[in-house]
Amino acid sequence: MIAGGPEISDDFVIEAQGRVIGKAGFWRLPEIGYILHPDYWGRGLATEALTAVIDHVMTTRDIDAVTADVDPANAASIRLLTGLGFEQTGAASRTWRVGGVWMDSLYFGLDRDRWKSRKTP
């Protein structure tokens, strides 16, 4: 987060009761990223945080869309993103190496118009 710099990054910590429990934002615009301590999963905090950071970047940056790269096995992240209006835009094999094991990616996107229409009653 610190190394990103404000011209390419817009990242925020997530706090609960004075304790840092995660982060949400854009380490490298326009790709969104997030992590939340497992003790706080299932409480809607990730949805709340991502809604806030997407609103922030859509109003303060001149970008037309945000993207995400998700492990296909991470069903919770896929539900989170699709619940926020992201649509799958592609897939690729062997894109990340984690602990010596190659992982695949699903790619998602959310454009400004879709974000605005999702928020309009």
From TrEMBL:
Q: Which residues form the N-acetyltransferase domain?
A: 1-113
Segments passing through the bilayer? none
**CDD domains assigned:** NAT_SF (cd04301)
Q: Spell out the protein name for this chain.
A: N-acetyltransferase domain-containing protein
User: Can you name the source organism?
Assistant: Brevundimonas intermedia
